[in-house]
Automatic annotation (TrEMBL):
Domain Glycoside hydrolase family 2 immunoglobulin-like beta-sandwich: 225-333
Coiled coil: none
Residues annotated as domain Beta-mannosidase-like galactose-binding: 58-214
Source organism of this protein record: Parapedobacter defluvii
Record's signal peptide: 1-23
The protein's name: beta-mannosidase
Amino acid sequence: MKKYVKLGLAVMLIGMSSLGLRADDTPLNGTWELSFFPQPKRPITSPEELAGVVAAQRIAATVPGNVELDLLKAGLIADPMIGSNVYALRKYEGYQWCYTKTFSTPGVKPGERVRLVFGGIDCLAEIWLNGTHIGSASNMFIEHAYDVTDVLKAGGENTLQVIIRSAVIEAQQYMLGTFSVGNFAATESTYIRKAPHAYGWDIMPRLVSAGLWRDVSLEVINEAHIVNTQWMTSSIDLEAKTARVFVDVQLAIPFEKLDRTQARISLSRGGKVVHEEKVRVTSHAFRGIIELQDVAFWWPRGYGDPALYDANVALEDEEGNVLSEAECRVGIRTVHLDRTEHNDMENDYGRFCFVVNGEPVFARGTNWVPLDALHSRDAALLDDAFQLMVEANCNMVRCWGGNVYEDHRFFDLCDENGIMVWQDFAMGCTFYPQRDDFARMIEEEATAVVTKLRNHPSLVLWAGNNEDDVALRWTLINFNIDPNRDRVSREVLPRVIYEMDPTRPFLPSSPYYSQQVYDEGSHDDLLPENHLWGPRGYYKDAYYTQAKARFVSEIGYHGLPNRSTLEKMFTKDAVNPWLDGKVGLWNDEWMTKAVRPFPDEPKQGGRNDLMTNQVKILFGSVPADLDNFIRASQAVQAEAMKFFVEKWRGDKPERSGIIWWNIRDGWPILSDAVTDYYNSKKLAFHFLKNVQENVCVFINDAKAGKHPLVVVNDTRKDSGGYVTVTDIASGKTLYQGDFTVPANGKSVISELPALQGQGMLLIRCEIDGKPYTNHYLYGEPPFNLDTYYELLGKTNIYAIN
């Protein structure tokens, strides 16, 4: 007989999973048993039904994990990272999976409860403990917690089972509305709260996984415990170095403990307590107001120190015993997004600028895509991938909406390194359902994510989605669909932000087609913030050079990985030749890595053709030799990305940021990333690192017959130095002299005469006593590949392969 009992805590109340934990809490990670079988017409949802499935296979599983990794370890599949092996996983999309774990009951004192916490369940699951149904899960992105105190066996062994259904099959339960998915998100994904990229994207494979992908643990908590804290900077005075800070505290507390319990609130920095107070608890929710003196403010990278404070709220009984404790680090700062609803074309006016502590910030950064197609590996990959952003001197990262939400560790690193986070909600390139049931799912998800992450000072923007507004135009433009009628991004999400995180900006979509933009025709020039992909032609085409966007949050160019990576991601015979010489078509594995979701579509082309076309434009032809093809492709990408960043920085302050695509691949592919899945850097990484220095000197393309020699300063201090510009081939000096540039400003040092022919200029500087070198490629394509690398090598700036 099945036993169903009503258990569990609302997901939205566990925003900080470290609240109320004891040293002897029990992790349930490690080895589990995994059973799997094709999902029957009536899915298996209970252990009783599972016992009758004679066709189930059983293997050992690792948690956190994904089922594919367990299949791989058991020798049942080939590595999906290599060649076209990923297509063999298609049949498993129709399977069910059951994770089983036995564990001992932890010791529990009077007045304590035990909570079972899943950091991430992918995705549609029923959870059973000792034959009792304790809850259901239907969202990959959020934590799930259940009070299991009354189900645990006293002093005995417990059996935990998580039965997961097929997300692909279960999607058929939902009636879909009009489709608007372009070439990206699959229609079957729209109602399932699972990472959109898993169904296939142009940067990720189709790999519809399942698993317990984040930690599982038993947490012992006192009946009186902290549910949530929210730290907010109410106001600041930079000159006086003062700030007012609010801390809102929400408790779960028995009535008899009210008036007999106190909360100790403290802030400290560098081990020194700067504020401490005790508050008698008379209600389950209260606010503390803190007036701080001699404040160390949190600043984005380059603009100052990202100062952090240790924040603590401890709930104590009458004897001073700590019942529950909430610890985090906070930054004292304000953030504002200064933007207009559209570009005023008649007056050439529009704004999209992040303002931190009253200071306009020029955003230099990257898009953050999945670290891995199998997200249980994310945590192990994070630190190395994050260091790439630090090395490239990014001060902003955009967490793309086709991904999962990163955990606290990612945001901790952003806090520490002064990297501002633009966080999309996990939706992209789709016309999502507008009905009540879907709205409730998104509201629950948004509430859980916002309350979990809102104390991180690096988080400066919530964005409703990636490209949902523009997706309506890809396939529904003739129907004149107004994105401002979208219930999810215009009603549900802003309501959650308004209630749960009112001090942080919200952008409905990226790019955002406001009512004014829509009413005036929805063309690109009206967008203050935009994604610039377009025809992917020459990187100096009018599409890029005449773009009106004040802030570009996606822009990129293709570049092959290094040969060592190609040899890892392809089977031996597929590395070279990449083309079938008889018919001139890409070989199959190069098409798999293009990326195509299924083996029979598209047959040819894809992003590989974009890459070869771009090589032809800059160098006249595509080299037949693989190593030269790699050199040419990486040079094109590097020059394009350098040009984009220098153009946007050179137009400061009219332009206020560029977030390029992207720092690292999440799967071994042929892509726009500047570092591949194996953390091997392409030439573009080195170019970007050089042109993202806080103070940078470069040459912009000629205007009215003159090349501006520009210095930009993304710091809050005046700067200056000495610069010499020479032609590398001739050795002729074109300019030398001193320069100054104001804090957070730009100066045109000189205007150089327009250059004839082709060549490369070397820019040598001493900036505030430190050396800096840059280059400028001049002339019209096509260039000679060997000559290009010969000149580039003479600059001694970059690591040239």
